[in-house]
Amino acid sequence: MTGERQEWAGEPFTEKAFYLADFRERTLAIACAADALADPAPVRLVFAELGANRTGILLLTTDGSLARQLDADIVAVPPGRAIGSVWRALRSSPRVALLLQPGDSFHAACRALAVSLRVSKLIFLDAPGALLRGDGSRLSFVDLAELEALLEAPIGDASQRVPLLREIEAALRGGVSAVNLCTAGGLDEELFSYAGSGTLFSVGRYVDVRPLGIDDFGAANDLVTRGVAEGYLALRSEAELDRIFANGFGAFVERRHLAGIGALIPHAESGTAEIASLYTLTRFLGEGIGGHLVAALCQVARERGDACVFACTTTLRVAGFFERHGFRRVSPEDIPAEKWRDYDPARRPHVLCLRLDFT
Fold first, then answer.
1. Where are the domains of the chain?
2. How far are the Cα atoms of 24, 30, 57 from residue 84, in angstroms, in the given order?
3. Share of the chain above pLDDT 70, in %
4. What are the tens digits of pLDDT across the range 106-115?
């Protein structure tokens, strides 16, 4: 390798700061039945952070004592002008509680209120928490099409939660952009981390792959730093990183959250392309983000006439990922010679090479 090694300077890009910036000046509706909150302390801390962040909170509950425990002002909702009354209440208090009638279906009433108030995000605090697959693993993301299929043929614990899932579907169809499902104790992790603790339901496909723009480079740089620290990515010089970003693509969740990155490096002498610095965040493992990135990069390579794409890694797990996506293991001699110019000689004996031919 050539050039100076890049060192991370300044404060690292934090997940919580990212989400707080995203939530600023927005209103979140948080639905909590009395039996879903054994300990109000964790939720109270989240509410305090959101309030300091200038994020409005609508607590939807049937329990007035719960509202008082969470320091939420109880607001009456006049028929016909609920949205204006709630807006005025939020101007004087960072969080307000809207009391629902105990006799109604709680989830249905919360959905109807969230739709009528036109909030963009609704969070159900539910004792079971995230939706689970049949093997017990968590479903982190479910889009509307996947939710429809899940309701037709429930898997995991979905069969026991169909009424709630139908209300989530109705909320998405009614104009709510995203619905989170998590435990009260997991609210902080669900809202403020990529790993999450629950399930996020969204209207459209949860991932969109596009070229990185200059405003994405800060988050992309952080992902590269994480990948290096975890041993999945090679440490690169500043010049090499610039080349990665110039040819970089990002997988964005909800069109703005950077969930993964990958670069398509052209090798003009051989008419081939290299997939480099492929990395996805913890929350998206098993959710297909890496597969979306590889498919998009291969499509770009095909369209520009490259004969093949290849990837090099020192990690068996990464090699297995590429093999599952149609790549085959090859020797270093089957990789363009220009790849090995200025390559770290200490790293080369450990490199696994994979290639996908288009012809």
1. 15-205, 208-357
2. 20, 19, 15
3. 91
4. 999 999 999 9
Give the CA radius of gyration of the chain: 24
CA distance 268 to 202: 40
Kindly state the DSSP code that residue 326 receives in the 8-state scheme.
T
Q: Which CATH superfamily is domain 208-357 in?
A: Gcn5-related N-acetyltransferase (GNAT) (3.40.630.30)
**Inter-helix orientation angle 162-173/144-152, to 10°:** 150
Query: What 3-state DSSP class applies to 143?
Result: strand
More confident residue, 194 or 66: 66
Report yes or no on whether pTM surpasses 0.85. Answer: no
β-strand partners of 86: none
Of the candidates 283, 57, 40, 65, the residue with the CA atom closest to the CA atom of residue 185: 40
41's tokens: 């302390």
Q: Which two tokens stand for residue 161?
A: 């939660």
* Helix H or strand E segment including 260: strand 257-267
For the domain covering 15-205, report its CATH number. Answer: 3.40.1160.10
